[in-house]
Design a protein that fits this description.
Helix content is 51%, strand content 21%. The protein is an alpha/beta fold. It has a single domain, classed as 3-Layer(aba) Sandwich (Collagenase (Catalytic Domain)), CATH 3.40.390.30. A four-stranded mixed sheet has the order 1-2-4-3, sandwiched between helices. Strand 1, helix 1 and strand 2 form a beta-alpha-beta unit. It is globular.
């Protein structure tokens, strides 16, 4: 029902929150799901590293960690996004920071909708689905 945005240990201002929320809700609906309570928390690499160690036993920062609180066909969860890693990935892949951030935000939603990315085939399908929805966003 709602998508909320928070900062933890950094001052980051997400632009176009309303447009992003509408876009994410449309993607969820197109996936055949309902929007529940979704929280995005923007953090530094330090916070994401701590979360990755504590919950996933990985000793490295990542761009997003998604905690699934979904029930039935209602998508709910908390997504922690490292702004530091998103910036680094945008530079590494020669893409716009804002576009990379949107991709990461959508990536978390797709996981909550049941998409996997454990195998090369799943990763390819995930990327194609992300590309489709990103085209929808930039066409809004």
């Amino acid at each position: 029902m709602s998508i909320k945005y928070f900062n933890d240990d950094l001052s980051f201002q997400l632009e176009n929150k309303r447009k992003i929320s509408i876009w994410l809700k449309k993607a969820i609906a197109e996936e055949g799901k309902k929007t529940g309570s979704l929280n995005y928390v923007f953090v530094s690499d330090k916070v994401i590293l701590d979360l990755n160690k504590k919950y996933l036993k990985h000793d490295y920062p990542t761009d997003i960690i998604t905690f699934d609180n979904s029930s039935g066909d209602t998508v709910s969860g908390e997504m922690y996004i490292s702004i530091d890693t998103v910036k680094a990935n945008a530079i590494e892949y020669c893409v716009d920071f804002y576009g990379e951030l949107l991709r990461v935000m959508l990536h978390g939603i797709l996981h909550l909708c049941g998409h996997k990315d454990d195998t090369a085939d799943e990763q390819e399908q995930m990327r194609a689905t992300e590309d489709k929805y990103l085209q929808n966003f930039f066409g809004m």
